[in-house]
Structures are given as C-alpha cells and as structure tokens.
Fold:
Amino acid sequence: MSHGNPPPSPHHLDYLLPWQSSEQAPPDRPPSPTDAPAPAPGRHGDLRRLRTAYRLLRRIATFTALGYFVAFLLLSGFAKELMDVPLFGGLNLGMALGLLQLPVTVLAIVVYERTARRTVDPLAARIRRAGAAR
Structure:
C-alpha cells in the first residue's frame, strides 16, 4: 500500500485527465513556414461528429422520458374520461400509465447507455488517441 501524496482533486486547477499530458513533447524539428497549422478544436471533424452524436443522444433520452411524462400529464388533465377507463380489477388506464412511468424512464436510461457505448464512446476514444499521438 502506497502512502505517498494523494492524487489531486478533479476540482483543482492543475488536475489533468488520464489522457492529458503534463509536459509538451519536444518537436522533432523546428516548425517551418510551410507546415500547416493543426485544425482548431472547434472545427475538427471528429469533434463535430462527437458533438452531434452526443446532442442527438441527449435529445432522444430527454424526449423519451419527459415526452412520456408530459403526455401522461396532458391526458390526466384533459382526457379524464379516457384515464378512468377500467382495465381489470381496480386498475384503470390512468393508474396503468402512471405505473409505466418508471419502466419508460429505465428504458430511456438503457437506450442512452447502449447508444453512448456504440456511438459516442468510440468517437471520444478516437479523439483521445489522436490527441495523445500529437
């Protein structure tokens, strides 16, 4: 067990993420005027694809969970006759839709995680590798 200094807090200004380096790699040769500058991070194609994929992912998850909840609220407020339709036993349609809120939210979380692992995480890993190679 190591009793050295603990790692810095992630909230500390000098904290570096695992893929960041604390020292600049020395250039192999001095830069020449003909060298093309590195693309700005905001214009980099992979970063643009990552932002787009993440934005789409957030929207789908948000609209799934919140959309269902808003639909439930609107039905509860404006379609009371529909919500009072008995299904079986003492359960009516309104209660059934209310009970489905939790599974719909869990489904939104599962879809979010699965889509993130398939699309967003590989893009982020590729950008990290490209940054580490520089």
User: Anything to note?
Assistant: The mean pLDDT is 76. The first strand starts at residue 86 and ends at 88. The helical segments are 45-78, 80-83, 93-99, 101-133. The chain is about 60% helix and 5% strand.
